[in-house]
Amino acid sequence: MSMMQEFKAFASKGNVVDLAVGVIIGAAFGKIVDSLVADIVMPVVGRIFGGLDFSNYYLPLNGQATTLTLVEAKKAGAVLAYGNFITIALNFLILAFIIFQMVRLFNKMKREEPAAPAPAAVTPEDVLLLREIRDALRK
User: Fold this and answer.
1) How far is CA 4 from the centre of its chain?
2) What is the number of helices (H) and of strands (E) in the chain?
3) What are the pLDDT digits (tens) for 2-24?
4) The dihedral of CA 60, 63, 66, 69: what is its sign?
């Protein structure tokens, strides 16, 4: 089998296609969560903690002024952008919680499906014959 035929057989398997769809949907969902955190959650958190833009919290490592925005401070040298890190960590926690809830829902749906009754197994003729012999010997 040539390499192209092997690749075609591999790529056409259902699992590979499902994985590709999952990655694409995951990337789009990640953007939604990024927007949720950056545009809705972090402004509220920033308001609670002093009304500042939380993503601009940083510690200058190159002697920059702390009044600069994070972008300007990064242009001037290295910074420890802990506000940005906290924002990304919050993104992860929200995304992980949503995925946990989805998996929990799917598992719950799987458990609720009634198990199909097992079909009655047909007893082979030789077993039936041996049973008849056994019963005849008992008499």
Assistant:
1) 31
2) 6, 2
3) 888 888 877 777 677 778 888 88
4) negative
